[in-house]
Amino acid sequence: MRLLTLFLLSLLAATVANAAVRTVSNNAAIPAQYDNLQTAVDASAEGDTVYVSWSATPYGNITLTKRIVLIGDGYNGGLSGKAALIADLIYSQTDNTTNCSGSFISGFKITNVRSGLATGNPSIDDMIFTRCWITSILYFYNTTTSAHNLHENWYIKDCIISQISFSNGFSNRFLGVSNVLLSNCIFTSLMLYSGNAITFRNCNFFFNSSITFSNCENMTLENCIFYDATPQTLTNSVFNNCLTFSTFNDNIPYGSNTGSNNIVNENPSFLGYTSPFDLLDDIRLDVDSPAKNAGTDGTDLGVFGGSKPLPDLSGEPNLPYIKSLIILNSEVGKDGSLKFKVEAQNNE
Length: 348
Known about the structure:
By secondary structure, the chain is mainly β. It is 5% helix and 34% strand.
């Protein structure tokens, strides 16, 4: 993983107006302002940015109670061989007027994401997750009390997610979340209990089961690939330009669902996939894949299609990184100046 060096952080900090930038590392080899992530988050004001270094040691449970930008080094090791690890990320509030709506979270390996709210608290809206790996469950309710609130307008992109539990049961399926877009994501387990507007766009589903959706309705699925993952039991939903292969029932649409231009029971021809899904798999499409240029927008189906394809499986955030740093003068001048040349590239 490309390390967020102090030099790069200073450049980034200089470009941020009216917001503080804090650095966190519990890795003794990487200096930072804080070694405890929750302490750094608590010290931050609305709109501040917290950069978190990779470490072999998890940063524990984190509770967000204000709008914040939280950026980690990634979920898949990369050059460092480690990741930015969080146990439970809890979205919550400080009072009835201040909560973490509008937060941006990128570049973490997280066990669970869940609500910290009681029923009747203000909803948490406009949340953005990018390039995160949620290894267990994304909950849209408080698992301790089963408290529900309707959270709206979430955007989740370039993530790997095991299971999503939109609510804790059939009777609460119209709570949880509404108007959420999941784009260019990989899913490896069930979607549970949802009745509100959810859109999956250019996603890959890998889950060797007779069903992928349990008690879900009102979903829109575009340009998605279902490999092993059976897209059955949905109702009142739309399948457009999706591909199915090696599932228990490949037929889409079915029942009360609608849609068009779907590719049924055809191998997407990944370059190197072996069930179950693994980060070492190469899920790019072969040049002769039926999923090539088959999307609603004329691009590929799956995570490497769409207007902004998944860049890779590193989980590194979309930040500039230093490609080279050349010192131009061998000695510091009498005036204390040091000349250098920097080449950087954005990780898109």
